Task: structure prediction
Amino acid sequence: MGRILIVDDLTAGLPPRVILHTGPVEAFLAQHWPQGFPRPPAAFWNGERAGDEVFDRDMEAADELVLAFMPRGLDPVTWAIIAVFVVVTVAATFLLMPKVPSPDGNGRAGSVYSIGLSANEAKLSAPVPLCYGRVTRTPDYAAQSYRWYDGNQEVRAFLLCLGAGELEVDAVRLGETPVTDLPPGLAEWRVFRPTDHGQRLGAVSAAAGVWENVFTSGDVSSQELLPPKKFQARARASYAGSVFTFEDLSVAQTASPGDTLVVRKSSANGDYTVVSVSGPRVTVQGPLSGSGAGEFDLAIVSNGSVILGPFVTNPPRTRTRRIEIDVEWPGGLNDRDDQGKIRSWQVILTAWLTPIGDDGEILGPDRVVTFTERAATMTPQRRTWRIDVPEGRYRIRLGRTDFENRGRETDRTVWTGLKAWLEIDTAARAYGDVTLMSLVVRGAQELSETAQSRIFVTTRMYVPRLGTDQKILSANPADILADIMLNRSGTAALSIEGVHTEALEAWRTSLEGSSGFNGVFDTRQTLWAALQGVARRGRADPVMRGGRLSVAVDGPKPVRRGLVTADTVIANSLKVQWAFRRQGDPDGIELEWRDPDTFAERQVRWPADCLFPKQVKPLGFTDEAEALAEARYLWEDLTRRNMEVSFQTTDAANLFGRFDRIALAHPMFDWGASLRLVRAQGRMLQVSGRLPEGPLMAVIRSPEGEPSAVLAATGLAGGMLELAEVPPVELTGDSGGVPTLIAVSAPDAALIDLTVRKVAPSGRAFQVTAANYVEDLGESA
Result:
């Protein structure tokens, strides 16, 4: 069957009645309106605007007819003193079948605040975030994180910038795991407010052991250190000058120019670069200390095959006195005897440190440092070795120089990190007015890299209580608004005299029962945009009144702020426009809010069954009930405040402002009952219909469709209208083509309550835009 949708009042914002019907439309009308329509409807046949001819059609199963009735007093084919522009369509959700939702269920694009994508970063040159109220986020790094091995345990150290101002930490989470759920001592954090760190380097290091000056090289990351490819565990040889002579020719023949000859357990102990090989003779670089002969422990290390580097330890124009290398044996370190039993095994690492300048030039000879690790275990082993050096800049090479193995040992060796402690100036200012947090995680090898790069911190911010210098943990939008304006934590600059504390105090009191504003400003924006974001959390807008910051609050107004009459409205400037939902318009509001514990995105919808809502993302909501109430308020603001009134005035417009309740006293005309001019003679007009006898007000439509000013007139018997002055427009009677239309009203003005939307200068006058006043907006049944 076909469908007939009936919208009883376009101004009510209510869904249509749906009635199924097949057959003549005229039969349907005779059944439901035997006495005719109560008011003229606008008709739509299958989505297209239609005239009276639609009532002669037969409806089939696929047909759809919409009948939308106008509010009383309006006629869509005429003009009046109130220039009424009526767009008569019905929302798409009433006319179309539901669409298939997008894969994420709400049709939205991915949000930039998506908690699933959050990670701690070092955001150079980015604004320091302002975290008002109670928020959870992944703070930015204040210094490069680093790790070291303490015994066999991996330790990670972080220094985070929580935000501008003074913050209190409520909770810390590693990935999805609260720190309080971890074993005691595994994660330790400490907060440093501006007075704690003094905006200088060194305070955090001294108090928490988290160093602010550690540079971790990106060149070293899990490179395997291979054992020497050419080696001989024991060999007999003699040495003199720069030559080793081996008794076993095969030993000498394993060496090649450029290889490193490592000699141990001999008076010739050392690491030598091979210059040439001839028979049993191996010539090395530089003369040997004396001469001798005997059985040596040695290794011949192939050039470039097992020594990693050189890698620079610290950037240009920096200096270090401390270098650390991190090494891991992921399979443990052991050997097996002939019976397969585990026994100890040794690995020797040799580091070559070369001092260099800022341009990479070599400034001196290599310093050779050797590290030895011996163990008999299958448990992964981790070590950090510290090298103290004269102040400077360095590059480093690292290689294994242990002797030949037999294939029974487990000794896979991985170079996992290279760090340098940079020299710092503890007297220079390094931080601004920010709160820092140090975090040390022990046993970090048990946590995933993802968890370690997603550190969530829940904070609350101290702001001065409105009108005082006393800082409190407050999320009240009034306190935050004043904090922004008074340069307590932000970038504005205004004295306390520039804040209308009385108005803000009243607003503050009205918001004391709410969860307040809980949001983050972490992008560059204008001061006014930030004030608007905070104020709208309390259904208000920031305004400047008398040079002072105040707020205009939306809500019930028991007292009218002003009265506007016909005498104060500039002629022909008053217009009324009904804002009706059109095909394709949203059928509700979807509002984004944040989970108070995780700060993850959540959504609420009003009405709950809407299919194509308008998505809004206001700042500061962390309470589901409050978010739902706000969605309802926004929806009713859109659907119940659907009459827009605008006018110009030179009087009293500067006495009221946004969200003020005012009354408009002006003659109102029923254009559904407008009269047609039959004939005219001077100021005497014959009209098509009866008129009330006595004083009247009249408006005449010009040939171009423009309404005239309000004219004083007198109604006489016999449908005669006598104007007080000669008509200001050309008149056309019945016999002259399209007749002139005339609207009349009683001289008494109707009183309309309005909510002011905007007051703006317009030449020498003020342009006022207002909407119909709704007492219970967001609270209707």
In short: Confidence is low (pLDDT under 50) at residues 72-117, 489-493. The longest helix spans residues 624-639. The two ends are 33 Å apart (CA to CA).
